[in-house]
Amino acid sequence: MPGPLVVSRSLTVPEAELSWRFSRSSGPGGQSVNTTDSRAELSFDVGRAPSLPEHLRRRALARLAGRLVDGVLTVAASEHRSQLHNREAAEQRLAQVLREALAPAPPLRRPTRPTRGSQERRLAGKRRRSDVKRGRQGRSDD
Q1: 13, β-bridge pairs
Q2: How far apart are CA 67 and CA 63, in angstroms?
Q3: Three-state helix/strand/coil letters over the chain
């Protein structure tokens, strides 16, 4: 459980760069609800992390701008009643958020033009529809 956080094959965050905080979880918990700090918060300082190469740090800071507080990304987990399970969930969540933020941008779409055949088919269909509607105009069923 304790140890480095594996984000991808090429990126591993050392345990020293992660900080944990535990607090009481909300919701039902039985007898131990007021005594157990089962909620886990995992923080990672994206802005100052030596494990992130500079180009990945810039990408992460740009993509996670709305989630960062002073360059620190924090994820919380409180869905399980056990602190251990919440720690595992927080690690998985942080790794997933970092994976998505560090993924390369998709290739830009190259605009294409419609083929001549598709343009002609579209216009022929419009002509047919127009003829059908024009054929209905002259008739009066009174």
Answers
A1: 5
A2: 9
A3: CCCCEECCCCCEECHHHEEEEEECCCCCCHHHCCCCCCEEEEEEECCCCCCCCHHHHHHHHHHCCCCCECCEEEEEECCCCCHHHHHHHHHHHHHHHHHHHHCCCCCCCCCCCCCHHHHHHHHHHHHHHHHHHHHHHCCCCC
The per-residue pLDDT for 141 is 62
Q: Which residue has the tokens 């009643």?
A: 81
* pLDDT of residue 116 exceeding 90: yes
Choices 3.90.180.10, 3.40.50.300, 3.40.190.10, 3.30.160.20: CATH for 5-102: 3.30.160.20
Sign of CA dihedral 34, 35, 38, 41: positive
Mean pLDDT of the chain: 88
The tens digit of pLDDT for each residue in 64-95 reads 999 889 989 999 998 888 889 999 999 999 99
Distance CA 41, CA 18 (A): 10
Query: Does 142 score more than 80 pLDDT?
Result: no
Does pLDDT of 108 surpass 90?
yes
